[in-house]
Design brief:
77% helix, mainly alpha, two-stranded antiparallel sheet, Helix Hairpins, 3 helices
Amino acid sequence: MKQRINATRMELMRVRKRLALAQRGHKLLKDKLEGLIKELTDRLADYKTLRLRVDEAWPRIFGRFAMAGAAGSASATETAIAQARPKVKVETSIERIMGIAITHAEAKIVAPGGAYSLMQTSPAMDEALRDLREFLPDLIRLAVLEQAVRALCAEVEKTRRRANALEYVLVPDLSEARKIIAGRLEEMARSDTSRLMKVKQMLLEREEAAARV
């Protein structure tokens, strides 16, 4: 470690406690990371499938609206779209995954759109509006999945950085500090033992000298 190390038994106990705590924390972060990656993998699979479906459906719907607009006047097309607009209710809820708030949303058509002039619009308008009503729930679900994927990606990166900091910085530093302190304490103990033996030897020599006198 970079800081000055006090070679005392109290310091050794403190370092051992910090090391044990860091190792437990590292294991918890690793477990959390594995869980996050599993959640992210599952949602990415759903997101990819839904993304392909949305990317395929949207040009078709846009093309039908374009055909409907080309077959009639622009004002009639805009009026028909406004009149046929359904009433949509979006229900939301919050799910917590390992401390991350994930929003769930579901779109429901609670009232169909009103009637519009069939004389001033082409059959392409009927098809376009029908496809748009079917498309809307997928579009909202895609937005929800994208938000969840972004939140999980950010948490995975944050958790990985914290786990790496423990694994490659704090745990090695504390292990080195423990080793240094333990080594110094052993050296001090050997030095104390050596001094005691010398003192004992001196006392024995004095006793022997006194006995000879």
